[in-house]
Design a protein that fits this description.
There is one protein chain. This protein is α/β, with parallel strands linked by helices and 411 residues long. It contains 15 helices and 13 strands. The strands form two sheets. Strands 3-2-1-4-5-6-7 form a seven-stranded parallel sheet, with helices on both faces. The chain has a six-stranded parallel sheet with strand order 10-9-8-11-12-13, with helices on both faces.
Length: 411
């Protein structure tokens, strides 16, 4: 174990978030790690085949070979029983999400009670599912680390406000309950350290009154699908026969900048371009855009399927109004794809080097950036050469960052 480590780590993992990057990173950093998780389904386990279709496929992803020898406490049988009950109760949306979070906290808190007493350690849990776990670990004198998965309450305000200003795209999405956000604020109060994935998230939490001294920016770990990807090739100029191929990947929602993106297209009628939209639709898209000859609507696509679109595109457009990080940015970088991005997300784009940063998420700003790259294919070529996943932090770097932030507090 690292000589600066204050004790063993207990990682509470609801779902397979980031492919179990936190416990894997801590193991890479030489830490003593125990995992409490909702489900763990080793290869050939009959549990993964009891549920058919895509739901069963998700269960089969609840395993990682790097953690095969780690001490894991899983609540798989309990989760299966409860999932059936929630299905019969027809729970969905936020009600299901919040119910599942509360169930996990009860199970994990009880598991902490069963752990043998010993040297105080570190407990890591993700936001919105940590409160009861934190309360239990606090009684043992443990250090509490909260992994903040988004920009917090401010994010939901931005989402609701964006929807109010775009009624033609449908009503505002359902919002979490007041109790959900109250519990989150209590988690932040109990936490000794809060890990956020971007400066944007840090600013949003500080605006909510979270002490800056608690906050540390640790970007998401990235594992490239193709570490040897070649730079993209571009024509001498774009034309009707070979238009600029613009790619959007993500939820089709106003908060993701979709309204501004589509309206920008109306300002680019003289530019030969083709926009491909990949992602599940969470908005009512006006007919003029559904029928637009320059837009290809692909709908939801598997993660492996998305990789093909990164390879075929000329530039990724990521105009999100608020994002904890924006993993599609680093996926695109893995394929050496330049990016036009908003500033309200993780700092992946270096303006003018591997992409362009939008001064604001408006139709005019997006149209200006698209027009700039459409007029200069050589600029895109230089950006593609400067792109690459090698500059992004991987799983070992994530683990070392977590160890260091706790060690700094202990020193």
């Amino acid at each position: 174990m690292d000589k600066h480590a204050p004790g063993p780590w207990v990682c509470c993992q609801l779902g397979a978030r980031e492919h179990y990057a936190v416990p894997r990173g801590l193991l890479w950093a030489g830490q003593d790690v125990r995992i409490l998780t909702d489900a763990w389904v080793p290869p050939h386990s009959p549990a993964s085949w009891l549920i058919p279709g895509s739901r069963g496929e998700r269960w089969r992803e609840r395993f990682h070979p790097e953690l095969a020898a780690a001490p894991i406490t899983a609540f798989t049988s309990s989760l299966m029983r409860h999932e059936l009950g929630w299905l019969l109760q027809r729970l969905e949306g936020w009600r299901l999400f919040e119910t599942r979070n509360r169930w996990f906290q009860r199970e994990a808190a009880a598991a902490i009670d069963r752990l043998p007493a010993g040297t105080p350690g570190v407990l890591f849990a993700h936001s919105y599912s940590a409160l009861e776990i934190f309360k239990r670990a606090k009684t043992r004198g443990w250090t509490l680390v909260l992994g903040q998965i988004d920009p917090g309450a401010r994010h939901f305000e931005i989402v609701a406000n964006a929807a109010r200003h775009a009624p033609e795209f449908g009503s505002a999405p359902a919002a979490p309950s007041a109790d959900y956000l109250a519990d989150w604020r209590a988690e932040c109060a109990l936490a000794d350290r809060i890990v956020v994935n971007s400066d944007w998230s840090r600013a949003c939490l500080e605006a909510e009154g979270i002490p800056a001294a608690k906050l540390t920016v640790v970007p998401l770990a990235f594992e490239p699908a193709s570490p040897d990807a070649e730079p993209h090739r571009y024509p001498e100029e774009f034309s009707a026969a070979r238009p600029l191929r613009v790619l959007f990947v993500g939820q089709v929602a106003v908060a993701k900048g979709v309204k501004a993106m589509l309206e920008a297209l109306l300002l680019l009628g003289d530019v030969p371009l083709e926009l491909t939209v990949v992602g599940e639709c969470h908005a009512v898209v006006p007919r003029q855009f559904l029928d637009h000859p320059g837009i290809r609507w692909q709908g939801a696509v598997s993660r492996s399927g998305v990789m093909r679109f990164y390879q075929d595109a000329d530039v990724l457009l990521f105009p999100s109004l608020s994002d904890g990080f924006g993993m599609v940015q680093v996926e695109a970088q893995g394929w050496r794809l330049p990016i036009i991005a908003a500033r309200s997300c993780g700092a992946v784009v270096r303006d003018g080097l591997n992409g362009l940063l939008l001064p604001e998420v408006t139709p005019a700003a997006i149209a200006g950036a698209v027009r700039q790259v459409a007029a200069d294919p050589r600029l895109l070529e230089r950006m593609s050469r400067a792109s690459g996943a090698g500059r992004m932090g991987g799983v070992p770097a994530l683990g070392q960052s977590l160890v260091e932030l706790v060690a700094r507090r202990a020193s």
